[in-house]
Design goal:
Elements (H helix, E strand, L loop, with lengths): L4 H14 L4 E6 L9 E3 L5 E3 L1 E3 L5 H11 L4 E5 L6 H14 L3 E4 L11 H9 L8 E2 L5 E2 L1 E5 L5 E2 L13 E4 L1 H7 L4
Parallel strand pairs: 1-4, 1-5, 5-6
Antiparallel strand pairs: 2-3, 7-8, 9-10, 9-11
Helix pairs in contact: 2-3, 3-4
C-alpha cells in the first residue's frame, strides 16, 4: 500500500504508448474502489483497463487481444488477486507469445499471509522489483494492517476486503508485530 504501484504501472503504460507501442492493461474486477475498468493512482492518473476475474484464462484473453492488435506488453494491476493458474498462464504469455508481463501488487494481507497471486509470482517470476513505502516511524514498510471504522487495528476477518487508506495502513515489521503478532 502507498508505494506507488499503480503510478508505476501507469508510467510504464505511458512509456510504451509514447514509443508507438501498445500495452494491454488488466486489473482485478474485484477492485472497485475507483472507476470500474480503469487503473487509477492516488495522484489522479488513470488509464483504461480490461478486467480479469478469478476464473478467466488470461493466456486465451491475451492471445485473442494480441491477434486483434499486436500487443507489446501486458501490465497487471492488483496482481495479488491472480490465481495459481493465471500466474502459470502469464508465464505462457512470456514464453510462448514473447510478450513481457509486468505485475503490480502487494505481497501479504493484513495478517502477514501471502495472497495466492503473490505466492506464485514470488515463486515463478523471472525478475522481482520491490517498490518501497515507509512506516509512520520512518522505517521501510513491508506489512499492512487493517483498521475498523474507528481506526482500531483488527486481526481477524476475510483475507480480501477492498479498501484504501481509510481501512489499511502500511507498517514496518516491528510495528506490525506489536499490533498483530503480539496478540
Amino acid at each position: 500500500m502507498n508505494a506507488g504501484k499503480s503510478t508505476s504501472l501507469l508510467q510504464s503504460a505511458y512509456n510504451y504508448k509514447e514509443r508507438g507501442m501498445l500495452p494491454f492493461v488488466l486489473s482485478a474486477a474485484i477492485d472497485d474502489r475507483y472507476s470500474v475498468g480503469k487503473v487509477t493512482s492516488r495522484i489522479g492518473l488513470e488509464t483504461e483497463a480490461h478486467l480479469f476475474h478469478k476464473d478467466d484464462n488470461l493466456f486465451n484473453i491475451i492471445t485473442k487481444q494480441n491477434d486483434e492488435d499486436s500487443i507489446n506488453c501486458v501490465l497487471i494491476d492488483e496482481s495479488q488477486f491472480l490465481s495459481r493458474e493465471q500466474v502459470k498462464q502469464l508465464g505462457q504469455v512470456v514464453d510462448d507469445l514473447n510478450i513481457p508481463v509486468l505485475c503490480y501488487g502487494i505481497r501479504t494481507d493484513f495478517r502477514g499471509e501471502l495472497f495466492p497471486g503473490s505466492h506464485y509470482l514470488l515463486a515463478w517470476a523471472d525478475n522481482l522489483i520491490e517498490l518501497k513505502t515507509i512506516c509512520h516511524c520512518g522505517r521501510k514498510a513491508t506489512m499492512v494492517v487493517r483498521m475498523d471504522s474507528d481506526g482500531k487495528i483488527i486481526s481477524d476477518g476475510d483475507q480480501v476486503v477492498i479498501g484504501g487508506n481509510d481501512q489499511y495502513q502500511s507498517m514496518c515489521r516491528r510495528h506490525f508485530a506489536e499490533h498483530i503478532w503480539s496478540k
